[in-house]
Amino acid sequence: MRIGELARQTGATPKALRYYEQVGLLGAQRLANGYRDYDERDVRLVKEVRALGAVGIRAEQAKPFVECLISGHEQGDDCAAPLAVYRTVVDDLETRITELGRRRDTISELLREAEARDAIA
Q1: Per-residue pLDDT tens for 29-58?
Q2: In whole angstroms, what is the distance from residue 31 CA to residue 18 CA?
Q3: DSSP E strand boundaries for 14-104
Q4: What CA–CA distance (Å, rounded) separates 42 from 55?
Q5: Domains in the chain, ordered, with CATH?
Q6: CA distance 20 to 46
Q7: CB-based burial of residue 25 (10 Å sphere; 0-12 exposed, 13-18 middle, 19+ buried)?
Q8: 60 vs 73: CA distance, rounded Å
Q9: Residue 14: pLDDT above 90?
Q10: How far are the Cα atoms of 7, 22, 88, 100, 102 from residue 93, in angstroms, in the given order?
Q11: Is the pLDDT of residue 115 over 90?
């Protein structure tokens, strides 16, 4: 199938599909006329990358999941390498949550101080 059909079947844009190819997640065959040619396996790979993206795992981090699928596993996280990605993403999220909590607390304190000044005035 050509890139437009793959895009329709997966909900990805052709631009995203070309990007996935650029970062090594897809390896399209080329037809004699130079068009990319994809198969059903590529549909599964793109759906995996998009599902990962929906939970915050960037395309650049998806290669271990794709490689796991290509190697014949039923799920993209049936191998050890994707589990390491999950751990890294969870750690990054925990760091961001902590930082956001600090920022929230600082802004809340600034708000209380400003409201107290406003009540006096």
Answers
A1: 888 898 889 999 999 999 999 999 999 999
A2: 16
A3: 29-30, 36-37
A4: 20
A5: 3-120 (1.10.1660.10)
A6: 8
A7: buried
A8: 20
A9: yes
A10: 30, 27, 9, 10, 14
A11: yes
Exposed/middle/buried for 18, CB within 10 Å: 0-12, 13-18, 19+? middle
Query: What type of residue sits at position 92?
Result: D
- For residue 25, how many C-alpha atoms fall within 13 Å in the half-sphere facing its CB? 26
**What is the C-alpha separation between 54 and 103, in angstroms, rounded?**
25
Q: Which two tokens stand for residue 102?
A: 């600090």
Q: Which two tokens stand for residue 68?
A: 């796991």
State how far the Cα of 35 lies from the Cα of 3, in Å rounded to an integer: 8
Report the chain's mean pLDDT, rounded to a whole number: 95
CA distance 24 to 57: 16
The amino acid that residue 52 corresponds to is: L
> What is the DSSP-derived secondary structure letter of residue 109?
H
Q: Output Rg (C-alpha) for the chain, integer angstroms.
A: 22
